[in-house]
Amino acid sequence: MVKFIGVVTRRPGMPRDEFLRYWREVHGPLAAALPGLRRYVQNPPVEVSGREPRYDGVAELWFDDLDSLRAAFRTPQGERVRADESQFIDQARSFAMIVEEREVSL
Amino acid sequence: MVKFIGVVTRRPGMPRDEFLRYWREVHGPLAAALPGLRRYVQNPPVEVSGREPRYDGVAELWFDDLDSLRAAFRTPQGERVRADESQFIDQARSFAMIVEEREVSL
To answer: Among the four residues A20, A31, A75, B40, which has the most C-beta atoms within 10 Å?
Structure first.
């Protein structure tokens, strides 16, 4: 299993509420339909008084392996997802990582 | 439930292998002993040919709520965890976020 992590900043001038709404209501369902996707979690920042979050959100998408992840983004649905990102994300201030989860025993 | 996400860069001059070993074998058990911690996942980057990962790792720590999270880092164990970070993490090129998980239905 591999996990795609997207750490994103909203488009300049877009109010935070509008960003969160778009992410949840429009982009979420689009990305949820990616072929081969196993799990999808959106992580909006918790409001902490006196602290501005460094980014506007973190997305996590799980796939069986690296090949499935790459294949998903090359499908027509993958292209729709990428195209939709420009509607609410500032790509220059966002980044992605591909990681492997290692559960630590408590 | 809230989740602390730490996105980290290793100390300058530290080889990646050594960073990953220290994180897993030394820092992992220390952080796993934080009071009130509910779940802990370390996410090392997957090696993708031709792509240098933007950061050296992402840590995720779950707590019941914001108060439990803050309280954990104020305990002696929390202080040990913070102190140990300087052994392998470049704080100037690392950051943390506190988020809420929103599972998206597939």
So the answer is: A31
Amino acid at A39: R
Coil, strand, or helix at residue B39?
strand
Which residues does chain B have within 8 Å of residue A2's beta carbon, measured at their own beta carbons?
46
| Token pair of A11 as six digits | 């488009």
Residue A29 has pLDDT above 90, yes or no: yes
Is pLDDT above 90 for A95? yes
CA gap A18, A38 in Å, rounded: 27
What CATH topology corresponds to B2-51+67-90?
Alpha-Beta Plaits (3.30.70)
Q: What is the mean pLDDT of residues B6-21?
A: 98
Neighbours of A50 (CB within 10 A): 4
Binning pLDDT at 50, 70 and 90, where does residue A58 land? very high
ipTM of the complex: 0.95
Report the sign of the C-alpha dihedral through residues B105, A78, A57, A62, in that order: positive
Nearest Cα residue in chain A from B70 = A48
Q: State both tokens at B47.
A: 């090696």
Q: Which one of B42, B54, B102 has the shortest CB-CB distance to A102?
A: B42
Going by C-alpha positions, the residue among B57, B67, B54, B74 that lies closest to residue B98 is B67
